[in-house]
Design goal:
Low-confidence stretches: none
Largest sheet: 6 strands, mixed
Number of strands: 14
Structural class: alpha/beta
Radius of gyration: 18 Å
Strand order of the largest sheet: 1-2-3-6-7-8
Mean pLDDT: 97
Order of helices and strands: EEEEEHEHEHEEEEEHEEHHH
Number of helices: 7
Distance between the termini: 42 Å
Helix content: 10-25%
Shape: globular
Strand content: 15-25%
């Protein structure tokens, strides 16, 4: 197994390409579609770098995997599928997110509540293959109700659930989030061998530092500033909820949610042929 990682500076997001070197099949995890919220303009520079790598290395894209519906960047899943093929997939609890958020945006006309916009929805414990690589799916709620984690050999891809040790864990204050559930998710991660590589969804390095895209379970257990194996549930929940109360709404929240519930598409054009992002007033 080979893992190639790309970093998007604008959204501090990692995109991971998991490659089975025997078959040259690959999966792309948590891609990025560039979006300028002030101009209302999307571009594909980040996704095109991924496409270029896949094509230059003669890889076959088998899967385009999402760990959750992101609130801080727009996925390039649909664009990647158009250019590389592959099945778009995420955890089956996405249906909970769709039924929570789609009515808030009044977007039922072009955003199915059933999850049928995805090629595959994985249940807890499902397995599948990337070439000859075996993948296990864990449902890992807390940050959102629909977060899924992919365990592949000695590597686990955790999305936004866990950050670098000096940052801790994801926020849990979005609708459907739960600090208690995230505590249980992280403690489940800690049952893995200490040598397990943890591929992160984000990092926010200080100026001059390189972003940290991978840690180990052992490192997290010893160094995570918010949760260790011995951390009491009540302590973590109190800390996480106090911290979340100070956080601002992500700047790309509304564009990201609406587009990501459609695999990175901006929805059905209006009668004038243009597409629009809805900004609900006083929702958050």
């Amino acid at each position: 197994m080979k893992i190639e990682t790309f970093y998007d500076n604008q959204t501090a997001t990692f995109t991971h390409i998991v490659i089975d070197e025997a078959t040259k099949h690959c999966a792309i995890i948590d891609s990025v579609l560039d979006y300028d919220q002030f101009a209302g303009k999307s571009s594909t520079d980040s996704a095109d770098r991924v496409i270029e790598y896949v094509k230059q290395n003669d890889l076959t894209c088998e899967w385009i995997l999402e760990t959750h519906v992101h609130a801080d960047h727009i996925t390039a899943a649909h664009y990647l599928q158009e250019n590389l093929g592959g099945k778009i997939a995420m955890g089956s609890s996405i249906v909970k997110v769709l039924n929570l958020w789609v009515p808030m945006f009044n977007n039922e006309e072009d955003t199915p509540l059933t999850g049928e916009q995805y090629d595959q929805l994985f249940n807890e414990g499902d397995t599948f293959k990337i070439g000859n690589l075996d993948v296990s799916v864990w449902h890992t709620p807390g940050h959102t109700p629909a977060c899924a984690t992919y365990l592949i050999g000695d590597a686990i891809f955790v999305g936004d659930t866990m950050f670098a040790p000096h940052l801790g864990t994801a926020r849990c204050d979005f609708p459907g989030g739960s600090a208690e559930q995230l505590y249980n998710t992280i403690q489940r991660f800690y049952t893995l061998p200490d040598s397990t590589r943890v591929f992160l969804g984000h990092d926010y390095p200080k100026e001059g530092d390189d972003p940290l895209h991978m840690i180990t379970i052992g490192q997290a257990k010893k160094e995570n500033i918010q949760i260790k194996p011995e951390t009491p549930l009540s302590d973590y929940v109190a800390m996480r909820e106090a911290r979340d109360a100070t956080l601002a709404v992500p700047k790309l929240l509304f564009p990201s949610l609406q587009a990501n519930m459609r695999n990175g598409q901006f929805g059905k054009p209006s009668e004038n042929g243009k597409q629009y992002i809805k900004i609900p007033v006083n929702l958050m």
